[in-house]
Amino acid sequence: MHEKDHELVNQLFGYSLQEKDKMDYVGLIEVPDSYQGPRLKFPLTHVHLQMLIDAFRDGKILHAYYVLEVLFESKKALQKMPNFSREYTHPFREIAVCGDLHGKLEDLLLIFYKNGLPSSDNAYIFNGDFVDRGNNSIEILMILLVSFLVYPNDVHLNRGNHEDFLMNMRYGFTKEVLHKYKVHGKKILQVLEEFYAWLPIGTIIDSEILVVHGGISECTNIHFLCGLRRNKIKSVLMPPVPMCEDHVTELEKNEDVSYKVKTEQSFFEQVDKCEWEQVIDILWSDPRSRRGCYPNTRRGGGCYFGPDITRNFLYKYQLKMIIRSHECKPEGYEICHDGKVVTIFSASNYYEEGSNQGAYIKLRFDTPPQFYQYQVTPATCSRPLSQRVHTFESSAIRILKERIISRKTDLINSFQLQDGDKSGKLCKSQWAFSMENILELHLPWRSLTSYLVTTDENGNIDYMSCFCDIYIEKPVKEVQSALIETLYRYRSDLQIIFNVIDSDNSGLISLEEFHSVWKLFSSRYHVNIDDDQVDELAEKMDLNKDGSIDFNEFLNAFYVVHKFDKLSKSDTTLT
Q1: What gap in Å lies between CA 285 and CA 66, rounded to an integer?
Q2: N or C end of the chain, less CB within 10 A?
Q3: DSSP three-state, residue 167
């Protein structure tokens, strides 16, 4: 710790290292009637979360009263949590793991846009370094903490090396708080210092995946870390310095330095060197291809650990993988140590615009991790999110609905298999599971519900509503829907096969040739449709009964009707 840091610590924090009483801070602050920002009322709900996001998107500042309320309530909830949170996937529950955000609000909003807001069936792990460097650290911290307070079992916040008040003094967050909260900024910083110390050290998923911010060392001991009183370590930048009782007594005789000594000593009261080293390795270490474990000279803290260290650690604790953050990667993520260590970094354009992508990981039950990349660009920021959603709805949603209607029969069968009580409704995770299982599009289905289906007051989905405004026009009403959907879905493939067979380019095909096309198609694509249905359809399409079909006309007879096209033309015009 530098000498200039000592002076700033005393100036900013004073007696703050002692346990703070909430009313001493919040009770003295009033929110004026003229305040135009979001107003929070505890207990918080998802409505408050959406309100907060909307306000921050519009550039509003959350009043210091609410910032302090959120910090105190979050600290109270964190105090009940173990050093390592436990989280589990199952067929209807996915977990998104996000890396460093570093005050980049647009990245967080883009993640929520792609993956959906946190909820009871859309869990998140935010793996540290929420703050510093970027301009919106307090906004990101408030969004994450409100998410945690609304969904305490589904949002997990791991401590990073920047969740440290001394790091904040050097890398921007302290300055940001004092700038945005000129009157109460010092109080917020004092509460933050204690709040950081209560953040969990890591998360363990399915008893197989360890999620920590930095990494491990050859000495990392999970059992020891589980029993550590983590709140004692206010900053890993200040190593514990043993001080004998006689020396402390002598120093206290000098009134000019006694207060300063007591303040600094309280950081690491009863923290020994072993505890400090265990925590700093978790928060600061980096993987390298070289075997062994050696000092992290670039950072000045933690270590570099090789693939052999990873292998031995995972074997010892019966784990399969480590997910960590802490390092910017060009692609937003990196896999090393034979697939056993994954780095995830979620702040795009970290060094400068275009320098790197951001990414997050989706973990599903009994499925390899999936990586989702993105990059904030002027195009994603230039217009309000509502306009961006409007553009998305006018093009991609229309195409998506056509994909959905082409699998209507299969989707209904899947929905009904899960609808045991035949209510016509499914929870959001069951609906999303069916959509992905049938369509295999790897889309964030939960965040698309408002565009595709209707939900009741309990959040359950009327699964038939996703077909209510669209249908495939049948050229012959008697034909089964499953056949119509199959022909629509594969019409371009059928066209290619027909063009090969139609050697004279007449556009006409005999019933016999039509049967050949269908047999070739069904064997190639393994389509299980009764041949008798196809024969019946072909005969009915031979309108003049001359034994031939205009194949192009036949295919064009299968088209999707969007019921509300005329009503929504003005809504889908791009501005």
Answers
A1: 35
A2: C
A3: helix
Print burial letters for 319-341: b (CB count within 10 Å at least 16), e (below 16): bebbbbbbebbeebbbeebeebb
Three-state secondary structure call for residue 358: strand
Of 549, 542, 545, which Cα lies nearest the Cα of 510?
Answer: 549
DSSP string, 41-106: -SSP-HHHHHHHHHHHHTT----HHHHHHHHHHHHHHHTTS-SEEEE--BTTBEEEEE-B-TT-HH
> Closest Cα to residue 320, out of 211, 238, 419?
211
Model's pTM, two decimal places? 0.66
pLDDT in tens, 12-61: 554 443 445 777 888 779 999 999 999 999 999 999 999 999 999 999 99
What is the edge-to-edge ordering of all strands in the sheet holding 454-455?
425-426, 461-462, 454-455
For the chain, what percent of residues have pLDDT higher than 90?
Answer: 54
From the list 301, 262, 272, the residue with the least C-alpha distance to 284 is 301
Check: CB of residue 87 under 8 Å from CB of residue 95.
yes
Q: Is the pLDDT of residue 496 over 70?
A: no
Catalytic residue among 156, 162, 213, 337: 162
Of the candidates 174, 176, 142, the one whose C-alpha atom is nearest the C-alpha of residue 70 is 142
Ordered strands of the 202-205 beta sheet: 84-87, 202-205, 209-212, 321-324, 341-344, 333-336
Return the DSSP state at 260.
H
Euclidean distance between the first and final Cα of the chain, in Å? 54
Torsion sign, CA atoms 311, 313, 319, 322: negative
197 alpha-carbon distance from chain centroid: 24
pLDDT at 487: 64
Strand partners, 125: 97, 156
- What DSSP state is assigned to residue 28? G
Its sign, for the CA torsion 500, 501, 503, 509, is negative
Determine whether 480 is exposed, middle or buried from the number of CB atoms within 10 Å of its CB (0-12, 13-18, 19+): middle
* Tokens of residue 300, six digits: 């000045």
Separation of alpha carbons 487 and 474, rounded Å: 11
**Closest C-alpha to 538, from 551, 525, 520, 527:** 551
Q: Could you tell me how far CA 340 lies from the centroid of its own chain?
A: 21
Q: Which long-range contacts (CB under 8 A, 24 or more apart) does 428-434 make?
A: 428/119, 428/121, 428/455, 428/459, 428/460, 428/461, 429/92, 429/93, 429/121, 430/92, 431/461, 431/463, 432/92, 432/121, 433/91, 433/92, 434/463
Both tokens assigned to 346: 């979620």
In this structure, the strands spanning 560-562 and 470-472 are antiparallel
Tell me how far apart the alpha carbons of residues 521 and 511 are, in angstroms, rounded to a whole number: 15
Could you confirm whether 90 is annotated as catalytic? no
